[in-house]
Amino acid sequence: MVAATFWAPGSPAGAEAGPEAGADRAVAAPKITYDKYSLMVDGKRVLLWSGEFHYFRLPSQALWRDTLERIKAAGFNGVSLYFHWGYHSPKQGVYDFTGVRDVDRLLRMTEELGLYVVARPGPYINAETTGGGLPAWLKNVPGRARSSDPGYTAAYREWLDRINPIIVRHQATRGGSVIAYNAENEYAVNTDRAYMADISARARAAGIDVPITHNQCCDAADWTTDWSTGQGAVDILGVDDYPQAFNCPDPRTWGTWGTGVTERRSREAPVYAAEYQAGAIDLNDAGYEKCRELTGPDYMKVYYKSNLVTSGATMFGYYMAYGGTSWGWLPQPNDVYTSYDYGAAITENRQLTTKYDEFKRQGLFLTTAAPLTKTDPASAPASSNAAVHTEARANPDTGTQVVLVRHADRTTDADESATLTWTAPDGSYTVPVRVKGRDAKLLLAGYDMGGQRLAVSTSELLTHTESGGRDVAVLYGKEGTQGTTVLRYATRPTVKVLSGSVQTSYANGNLTLGYDHQGLARVLISDGGRRPLLLLLGTDAEAAKFWRADDVLVRGTSLVRSAKGQSTIHLRADLAKAGDVEVFAPARGLTLNGKRITARRTPSGSLLAHAAGPKAVRLPELTRWRSAEGAPEAKPGFDDSRWTVADKTTTVSPIKPKTLPVLYADDYGYHHGHVWYRGRFTSDGQEKTVDLNAITGRKGIYQVWLNGRYLGSAAGGVQADAGDASTPPNPDPGPGHFTIPSGLLKAGQPATLAVLVGNMGHNDDWTAEDVRQKQPRGLVGASVGDAAITWKIQGARATDPVRGPLNNGGLIGERLGWTLPGYSDRTWRPAQSTITPGSSWLRTTFNLDLPKDQDVPLTLRFPQGSGKYRVILFLNGWNMGQYLSTGPQRDFALPAGILRERGRNTLALAVIAEENATIGKPTLVPVANHRGGAR
Ligand code: GAL
């Protein structure tokens, strides 16, 4: 066994840390090492069970904590975090880590919650975000991105030199949370070893002393020292796998197997399922509920449990635990819309799903049963039925076995039974098992369960705790199936069945319990030479009702955030409704969210209390809308004297313009949202059409006015038009030909052409080709007969220092602050529901007074109107996404923090209509109502 050891830095621990982060840095810093079995923190093995979280998709620090608490309560002991270069950098040399970009604060939260972090700063991250995380200004930097080209090298080093010091001071080796550092992202084709090597070298030079990982994709490149020739190698090579693909419209199909289970990629490092599918992008507009079904509990049981036993993985990153919102101009235009719910276990509005329940069942188990951190393949119990497949691993030191039981045909819905002949560490056992529907179980044998000895069980272990001198253990199985659990005792123990129907027998040191998984049975076992055990035997659903916070088990609440204290347990928990709360701890008293509640002791030795539910809430209707015209720029007399002259004749973009000057928005520093163009020419009276080309990204449009007259709109070019390695660039992207009405132009007279071009976000660079990522946005060609046109361009005015570079584009309301709460719309007229083609603005305000101790996530729902239009919605100045009348998204998350839950809110809508349209009134919709919340 080779154990890699990393040097621990000699600098004073916490020297650069923020005020809270430095608190307990005096404690000796642990070393993070690994071998082929697992990661180790100061020699102690850790099974890393982490879920992916994108802070940039949740612009509210309070909700970061809320969501991290939810992730932790699901049994995760870690999070995987991308850091998004473009989110922090509006232009070269400028970086911002404040407010919703304060990742130092984020990392402190993970520390406070005791979650490990796999830090993934890219520089490239993909993630269905604009530019795949590359800043848009990089489009103006010569040289291929994701290579060792000098231009790109200077750029990405700028980013790493800022983000690395933040990550460094939060490493587990310095008392922080970061346990691994991931270099690049699925860097698989068009690779450049010198670039990959430089990322690791810079990380090490900055003080990264935790293992460096890479999430490999597609069998393409190999980045480990033991299997590859070296340059660019990382310590632990992980595998990304999305076995269900993204076929959300057909959620009952099952993906490929074999490649669908994580492979070992480094001989001397743990098997790492770096990004394992835990949701899907909604490529076909099926809706995220379908994506959630595609990657639902049955898939999770079969695939995730196989990763543990078939592959022996001990490092997991589930993509995504919580997806969030691609607010502002965060979405990459080709694959996603505003919502990045992802069909994840935690919904975009932070609600917990049946997938969350399954994560909890698996996560609590895997982070409880320590022998799972070190296992080798072992012989499995013989199955009497070929349709029931068994497979096992065992811990070489303790002998503990973990057995995977599933259908041999993993896609079948059949109900199969078998008898297992099981040679376990404590003896041979013959036990019945049943696999009902798509299912897989992880069964234990020879396991020291606290002070107990579990010989074998056909129920799965949820978790066990030790408190007040006794063990409490929860075992579960599918409703209606039989369970057998055998516990070892020196002498016959005293068994008391408190509830449910459980048969027991004792012979040769084996206490055998037989039962059907039905509701929740309770058995109290004492004597027999061991400390007492409260055994709770339940169904899958009953198991999911349990929460574990440290050594306290709780049931009855919708969430448990923490449980602290000895004689009084202080519970921070959420409740969807009034009901009983049961706490398994030897305490005498109970407080719930800071208030004492009366609790009585039950025969199970737990505390039982009745807790009140949330009060009903009433939401205001959105009325008193006012409106303003949104395209004064189209008028010939509009003052554009302060606009940027667009007269460039060259560009670093690999895609060349059809006409000159270069009109690419990025070349003039306008990277996000809409841009306006105004072209002036003198008519010769012969012009018949305005002929344009524009690239907007998928689903983008542009609109054209001549001498103030609206001529129409056209669809902008998309990624495919720009070509990739196999297809040459499209010579005619996003064409639009607009007939000039007769009489509109007069020979010898000046004319003004105004064009508003949308920008749906920047392409990613997944294949490291540069041509996709550098694809321009804005006009790529413009002609009106033979006229010589001079151009001006206007995009976003300046970066909003609070909301960041991706919040605003160049619409008039964005430039003049109509989106902001402070703006007075008193001169605006009362709004009509009918909209004429072009652009217009709507505003209203509403007051909320939501109860302080309740969590009521709200969404804004757009009713189906008529006509083709799109709406960019601003809540208190924050661009919370884009509604398209063509769908699919109608509900838009309004996250607390941006939403003032007690106070006045301002909604501003930029409406861009392609034709006459009627827009219905949007409404506020409560997604849930819980007493509690992360306070
Ligand atoms: C992976 C990538 C992630 C994300 C995911 C699909 O290939 O690493 O960033 O794009 O696919 O959602």
Automatic annotation (TrEMBL):
The keyword Ubl conjugation does not apply. Residues 1-20 are annotated as: Disordered. GO terms for molecular function: beta-galactosidase activity. Keywords: Glycoprotein, Glycosidase, Hydrolase, Signal. Pfam families: BetaGal_ABD2, BetaGal_dom2, BetaGal_dom3, Glyco_hydro_35. Signal peptide: none annotated. Its EC number is 3.2.1.23. Residues 8-20 have a biased composition (Low complexity). Residues 371-546 form the Beta-galactosidase domain. GO terms for biological process: carbohydrate metabolic process. It catalyses: Hydrolysis of terminal non-reducing beta-D-galactose residues in beta-D-galactosides. SUPFAM superfamilies: (Trans)glycosidases (SSF51445), Beta-galactosidase LacA, domain 3 (SSF117100), Galactose-binding domain-like (SSF49785), Glycosyl hydrolase domain (SSF51011). It comes from the Bacteria. Belongs to the glycosyl hydrolase 35 family. This is beta-galactosidase. It comes from Actinomadura rudentiformis.
